[in-house]
Structures are given as C-alpha cells and as structure tokens.
Amino acid sequence: MTIQLHAWPTPNGYKVSIALEEMGLPYDVHAVNIGAGEQFLPDFLKIAPNNRMPAIVDPEGPEGKPLSLFESGAILIYLAEKTGQFRPNDPAVWYTHIQWLMWQMGGVGPMFGQAGHFILYAPEKVPYGIERYRNEAKRLLKVANTRLGEVAYLGGDEYGIADMATFPWVRSAPKYDIDLNEYPNVQRWFNAIAARPAVQRGLGLLADKVKPVGAPLSDKERENLYGKK
C-alpha cells in the first residue's frame, strides 16, 4: 500500500521524499502549507503533535498495522529498517550512520535553519545573529569536511540515511553566502549525491510550491512560521 507523506518543500521535507525515492517506496504527497498554518490543523496534529512536518502514515506498519510517525530522523530510521535498504547489517556500522544522522538533527538542521532565518527572513537585520549562525554553519561544514576526507559518505563507505538528511541542508549553504569550494571534501560528496536520480526526483517535492529565495513573507506567513502558536 501507499505511504502518505505530509510535507512541504523545505530541507526537512526533502529528507523524506529523497529517502522514499531511494528506497522505491510508493507514496502520495499531502501538502502541509506551513506558511498558511496548515501544520496547526487538527487532522495534522493527530499525526504530528509537535506541529512540524514532515510526517508519514504507513498503512502497512509493524505487524501490518497502520503507523504514523513524525520527526524526520525517526522516519528515516523507520524506512531503512522497514525496507532493509541503507541499513547495514553490521551493528557498529549502522550506529555510525545513526550517529551522523543525529549530528544532522541536532546540529546541521537547527543551525542552518537559524542562519536562514536571520540572513533571509528576519524582519530586521541582526548582525550578531547573522554572524553567530553563519559561523556555526561553517563550523559544521568543517566537521563534515574532515569526516569526508576520511570516508566517502558520512556513515562510512556507503551512502545512507545520514547523507539523505544532511544533503538538503548543505544545499542551502550558497543562500547564506557560504562557498562550498572552501570545503572540497564536502563539495565532492555534495556533487555525488546531487547526481543521483532518486535525489533529483526527491527534490521535485511540490516543486510548484517553492518560493524564490528570500521572498518576502506576509504578516500571516511570518506569524505561522515564527509566531507564538
């Protein structure tokens, strides 16, 4: 049966669309327009109580029962274990992949996200915030550059879920005036992943809904994205 992907075309949404494409799983996209506040609708909150997308509903979850999941990292682990794809049999290797997935979840996503907010979307320019989060994004790229000087992919010799999770965020670096050429190992890794057909398909998620970089936000969009709800 077909997995329901509830998402919007953002780096976190792309993580899951890329994974579903890589694993060859059939899925339907249910748009969650976060600018319009659809993440606060009761039906969505039933599957994602943290009012954040992406989320999935798998009609054929464990023991054949429906399963809903939110949090992109949990979804990627679930899909890898469900299919047995991108799920190394060696426990030490698997936990290395998970380790780097958690690095993305706890570091790259939040820090790149804050950089994007202060550089592109904050209603006023806050030099401290811009410098703070751009520098942290650069620090994380240095960590990745060191790692990718030792191995082909974040988890080791094989492409995996940590790469699927990190790639969409690193893709945002030029928007923050960060030159990936300063991180040659990251650039090599980035080019290899960008060339994958499944990744290209995954980046087509709700392509007609993608707004231009830095497009101004309406007051309602700003409230829905960054307000007190």
List the helices and strands and how they pair.
Elements: E1 3-7, H1 11-22, E2 27-31, H2 42-45, E3 55-58, E4 67-70, H3 72-83, H4 91-121, H5 127-148, H6 161-170, H7 184-194, H8 197-202, H9 219-226
Parallel strand pairs: 1-2
Antiparallel strand pairs: 1-3, 3-4
Question: What Rg do the Cα atoms give?
Answer: 17 Å
How far from one another are the termini?
35 Å
**Would you count the extended β strands for me?**
4
Helix content: 40-55%
Main sheet summary? 4 strands, mixed
What fraction of the residues are assigned to beta strands by DSSP? 5-15%
Query: Helix- and strand-based class?
Result: alpha+beta
What is the H-and-E element order?
A: EHEHEEHHHHHHH
Strand order of the largest sheet: 2-1-3-4
> Which residues form runs of ≥5 with pLDDT under 50?
none
Oligomer: single chain
Looking at the structure, what is the overall shape?
globular
Number of helices: 9
- Indicate the mean pLDDT: 96
What can you see in these coordinates?
With 229 residues, the chain is an alpha+beta fold. The protein has helices at 11-22, 42-45, 72-83, 91-121, 127-148, 161-170, 184-194, 197-202, 219-226; strands at 3-7, 27-31, 55-58, 67-70. Strands 2-1-3-4 form a 4-stranded mixed β-sheet, covered by helices on one side. The longest helix is centred in the middle third of the chain and has 31 residues, at 91-121.
Question: Can you give me a brief rundown of this structure?
Answer:
This protein has 229 residues and is an alpha+beta fold. Helices cover 51% and strands 8% of the residues. Helix 5 packs across helix 7 (184-194).
